[in-house]
Write a structure and sequence with these properties.
alpha+beta, two-stranded antiparallel sheet, 6 helices, 11 strands
């Protein structure tokens, strides 16, 4: 009986220590954690909210996610499953911030061809580009697929609900339409000047 209790405690402790690995957490921990729903198709762009923590500058865009398939300025945790498309991001992807301040993959001809598409703005073979969705716990992300974020609230998130237009840009990437009204609201909410 005593060895069963000792064994049970040992197994419980090992499971507790390995919980991040069992949950699919790959990468480094950060102050905020986003998770991408792996059930939907991989997106060319998973955008992080342009609004940052008050008084801070946006971080450097970098590949993240367990397989390096997400381009973001903060650590994003995804399930650790592998899809052949993910190799395209490592081989041909350029992770950078666009003119509107959102991180994403530059739609180079090499990346688009590797992912099975034609030109960056073309409809992929066998279908159309899907509709962009407003997602994230607070409705602060515009993406091709559902994106799960931590459920914190920032004043600038209200700007997206009131003034944000979630749409595809000329390259086919989802993001918030850059308008003077939205920019002014974001600057006012974060306490910074444009």
């Amino acid at each position: 009986m005593n060895s069963f209790t000792t064994r049970h405690r040992f197994v419980s402790m090992v499971l507790l220590l390995c919980a991040p690995l069992l949950a699919g957490a790959c990468g480094e921990a950060g102050p905020e954690v986003d998770a991408v729903d792996s059930e939907s198709e991989p997106a060319g762009l998973v955008s992080a909210a342009p609004g940052e923590i008050k008084g801070s500058k946006p971080g450097r865009c970098r590949p993240t996610g367990c397989s390096g398939q997400v381009c973001a300025d903060r650590t994003v945790y995804t399930t650790c499953e592998w899809r052949e498309e993910y190799a395209c991001y490592g081989d041909h992807g350029i992770c950078e911030r666009d003119a509107s301040g959102q991180c994403g993959w530059r739609q180079t001809p090499e990346l688009v061809a590797c992912l099975g598409g034609g030109d960056a703005g073309e409809v992929p073979p066998g279908g159309e580009l899907g509709r962009c969705v407003v997602t994230g716990c607070s409705g602060q992300v515009c993406a091709d697929q559902t994106v799960y974020t931590t459920c914190e609230w920032r004043e600038e998130y209200a700007c997206y609900g009131k003034l944000g237009v979630c749409e595809r840009d000329a390259t086919g990437q989802c993001g918030w339409r850059d308008t003077p009204e939205l920019d002014a609201c974001l600057a006012s909410a974060s306490g910074s000047d444009i």
